[in-house]
Structures are given as C-alpha cells and as structure tokens.
Amino acid sequence: MSSLTWILSYTMGLRDFVSYYFTRVPDGTAEDGRHGSVPAIEALSEANARADVEKMQREMEEIKKRSEVLRREAEAAQQRLQEEEKQRKSTQQELEQKKQESAELSVRLREAESRLTAQEAELLRTRDEADKHATALEEHTKALATAPEAEAEPFLSTTDSVSEKAVIALVQDTNAEIHTAAQRIAESYKYTAHKIDASPQGAAAREWAEHALGRQMTQLLQETDDATIVQVAFQGTLSMYAHWAARCWYFDLAREAEVIGDIYDDVYYHMRETEPLAVARRWRALTRKHIQSVVHGDSDIAAALVPRIAERLTDILLVAGCKAPLKQVTETMKFKFMDKIKAVIGHALEINRLIGQEALASDFEVTWVSPEEAYDPTWMADIDIEQEAGKKDAEDLVRVLSTTELGLGRMEKVKNDGGSEEWKDSCLVKPKVVLESMVEWDGEK
C-alpha cells in the first residue's frame, strides 16, 4: 500500500472515532438524572475531548503537511518515470537505428569483400600478362641490341639511286625547254625601237625589267628591234624562274624575289656541320617532301606558277616595243605558250624533287648568274665561244648581261692532306651567259 493511501485511511478512521465519542451516552448515566456528579463528569469529559480534538487537529495538520510532501514526491516520482520512459523510448529508437545501420554496413562490407576478391583476381591476371609482355620486351631488346646497325641502316644509309648523269641530263633537258620556249615566243612578234608606254602597266613593266633583268638589258630591249635580244631576255627570265623553282623548299610566287625557305637552308647547312652527314641529308629529304605536301597537297604546282611567269614575259614584250596590241599578246601568251612555259617549270620541279628528296649520297645545287655580276670563266661559260680566249686576257672587268642556261654544281665532304674533312665544290655543268661586251653601244649590235 502506498503512503498516500495509508494516510487517507487513517484520516477517515479518526473522523469516525471523534463522531462516536461526542454522540455516545456515558455508561452509568440515569435517565432521570438522579446522580449529583454528572456535571463534573461532563466537564471533565469535555476537557478531555477538547484536548483530544486539539491533539487530533495537530495530528491532522501534520498529516496534511506529510500528505503534501508525499504528494509532491509522488508527482516528482511520476515526472521522473515519464522522463525515464521518454529516455527509454529514445534509447530504443536509437538502438533500432544502430541495428539498421549495422545491417547496411554488413551488406556493404560483403559487397566490398566481393569487389576486393574480384580485383585481386584481376590483379593476378594483369601481373601474369605484364610478366609475359616484360619477357617479350626483354627478348625484343636483346634482339635489337644484337643488330643495331642493321636496324639503323635504312635511315643512316647514304646510298641512293640518283646518279650524277641523271641529274646532269635533267638540267640539260630543262635548258633545252627554256631555249625552245624563249625562241618560239620571241619569233612570234615584231618589235621596234620606242619609248615605253607611260601607262601604269608600262611603268610597272619597266620597273620589273630593271629589277630582274638589269638596266643594261632593259635599255637594250627598248632600243632594238632584234628578236634575238628579246629571246635572250626570255631565256634569262625563264632560267631565273626555273632556278627559283629548283631550289625552293616550297613555292609562293608572291615572294618570287627571294628563295623560299632560306631558314631551312640555314638549318640544313648547320646540321651538315654538327650532325652525321647521313642524318642531315635524310632530314633534308624528309623535310622537303613533307613541307611541300603540307603546303601544296595534291595540287598542280606548275599550273599554279605558270600564269605569273606569263605575266612577266608579257612585261618583256611591252618593254621591247611589241607591235601587237596588249590584249592580243595576253591572249596569245595564255592559249599558245602556256604549255611551253609549264614544260620548263615542270622540269625545274623534277630537279627540285630529285636533288632535294631523293639524293642522299651528294648535295647538288642548280646554279644561275645574276645580271651585272662579274664574269668568272671558272664557274660560267660564255655563249660566244670565239671571244672566250680574249676575255681571259682582258684587263677590264667583264659583266654578265643575262643567263641563258642553268648550271649544276655538287658539294662533297672530302679529307684534305692533313686528314681533316672539308667541303669541296665541283662544277658539273657551267651556266651559260651572255656578256655585256657582246653589245657595242654605237646604236648597233
């Protein structure tokens, strides 16, 4: 039984006792009131009763206080029970959550173990393959080490199928095409001494002629009606463009005044001095091949170059006082002589390929002499053979009027008497030239 229940039962019993005490009839009391001690007894009883009542009141007050304390304790206990229940439920919920997380972790652990097992198996398989490849690589390395020279031979070889005779023959064929084209064009027109047209086109033609052919040839063209002089000018122009096309690493007539690829020449010459000669020549061959492929692709290079060259030949006709109208000259050049010009450039491009991409045993170089350059019989040939001996003994400086045919040179590395290597230049074909001395400036040739 709880403390609160006991207190309530005790209080109710005390109340019943008091009620009984004040309502009972005292023993020995006569109905008729004949005893004389009754008042005293009643007074005593009342005093006792009053004392008892006061005592019981005090006890009831104590009981009330005790009851209040117990009530508060009961409420506090009840609150603690509620909090403990709440805490228990929270703990239970947390426990359930942990159980769920544990189950999920168990699943993930099993999956990780499964993946790890698969990866270990894959690792073993990869190691087996790596061991096989390593073994094969080691065997291949050993095989290469036993024959390095044989492997490098295709790259380092300086032997080729390009013969000196073949290059000489190609240069001579080019010169024949130059002569034929120049003669055909020059003989197709009539000329007269004149003043050059003052139009912009005439002025531009004269300016180009003075720059490319020299002032001497430009003045001679203006003052003569001889087709032979025009032919020489044509040969000089065609040989100049053929020389340009035979040397360039790639082709751009917008830069006709320079040899395209001078920087490549500089690199090649530097490589020849610092690298094995076979490596330098192989670099030259591959670079020429691939740079032309990148820049020009499969296009017809000769067909692209011919129209500009035809314009320059037309300029010569303007300077030479061609009697035909300019439109007729242009049309004739376009439809009648394009194939002749293209044949010259086609031969020059073949020289470019042969000595630039194919020749590995030697360094060939196509030669051409600039107008007004000093004549050197060691490297040049005068077309006027009869006067050759006299020019050697002449004290005055003799200058070149125009080049009519290309020459060919070769550079080789040879050992001198001291055992060191040096470059040796050989002249295989001398470029043919017309000298200024052929012309007597008295009004007649």
Topology summary:
Blueprint: H1 3-23, H2 38-146, H3 148-156, H4 164-186, H5 200-213, H6 215-223, H7 227-247, H8 262-274, H9 277-296, H10 301-319, H11 326-336, H12 338-358, E1 363-367, E2 381-382, H13 388-393, E3 400-405, E4 407-415, E5 421-429, E6 432-435
Can you tell me about this structure?
The protein has 445 residues and is mainly α. It has two domains: 3-22 and 39-143; 163-361, no CATH class. 67% of the residues lie in helices and 8% in strands. It has 13 helices and six strands. The chain has a three-stranded antiparallel beta sheet with strand order 1-4-5. Strands 2-6-3 form a three-stranded mixed beta sheet. Strand 4 (407-415) and strand 5 form a beta hairpin. Helix 1 (3-23) packs antiparallel against helix 2, helix 5 (200-213) packs across helix 6 and helix 5 crosses helix 10. It starts with a helix and ends in a 10-residue tail after the last strand. Residues 74-111 are annotated as: Disordered. Residues 74-88, 95-111 have a biased composition (Basic and acidic residues).
User: Taking strands numbered 1, 2, ... along the chain, how are they ordered across the largest sheet?
Assistant: 1-4-5
User: Which class of secondary structure composition applies to the elements?
Assistant: mainly alpha
SSE sequence, one letter per element: HHHHHHHHHHHHEEHEEEE
Strand content: 5-15%
Overall average pLDDT = 83
When the domains are counted, the total is: 2
Largest sheet: 3 strands, antiparallel
Shape: elongated
Uncertain segments of ≥5 residues (pLDDT<50)? 24-36, 441-445
Number of helices, counting only DSSP H or I runs of 4 residues or more = 13
**Into which percent range does the helicity of residues fall?**
55-70%
Distance between the termini: 158 Å
